[in-house]
Design goal:
heterodimer; A: 108 residues; mainly alpha; Arc Repressor Mutant, subunit A; 55% helix; B: alpha+beta; 3-stranded antiparallel beta sheet; 6 strands; 53% helix; elongated
Chain lengths: 108, 181
Amino acid sequence: MIKKYEPLTESYYYILLCLYKGPNHGYGIMQDAMKFSNNRVKIGSGTMYTAVSKMIKKDWIRDSITTDDSDDRRRTYEITKEGTDILYGEIERLKELLNSAKLIEDKI
Amino acid sequence: MGKELKKSYRTYMAWNYEKEEDFINENSNGGWQLIKGGCFHSVYEKDDSKKYVYKIDYNPKTIRESIEKKRYIEMFEDLGWEYINSTYNGWNYFRKEYDENSDASEYEIYTDHSSYREMLDRWCKLGKVIFAVELIISLLYTFIAIKHMDIIIGIEAVLFWGLSVWIKKGLDIMNGKMQDK
């Protein structure tokens, strides 16, 4: 049976997490991912492009039309309903992983 | 205003693209800044005032899909890269001014294994088609050469076999890169 939620790569996960907060552009996503991960996850342009174009194809995110900041011509992205479901699924999976570790924590 | 220009007729193969990247970066250190990259022909401009880090990236979507090309270039620009040009066959050149105080990660475009592999795989898909075509031509030429006992066609067949082996080697090198980074 094919699993509904495949584990996401860190880049995918952080991009979805950042866009869950609200529409953002590439630079904003990169900054947020760094902030969330204490400077550990830095997403490069090639990785960001590959992830974003893949997720657009999968309909997890889409181009967002910004109405405010008319002079800001940067391309921004937003999360879709499907992407939100994927993100929730991943968060559940991560919680389960963490809980599993806690079960044997005293033995580590 | 007119800066000194230098043309370079240097060719490189997809599986050696990092070597070309190194070569371009060495030129930048020496004050020659790439202003147009190409698989056969590049142009440099003399400028000693700056130092850049150059990157070559393969993305065949820039050949025909103009919307995707725009998205691609904008993403690089958004993350601080200056777009230089694209070749007819999907290679793209970018640069960022070098700052010795910056972290090395500032100049990485692939920051996880899976996306790096995907980029190489985009080329390998094309490489496999070229290899298959070469192989068919080689077989065809061999067959005709034997049937007609024609030495010229025989020589051509050998050349095509050589090309096939060469492309197969390139594919193996690309596959090697996918394994070990």
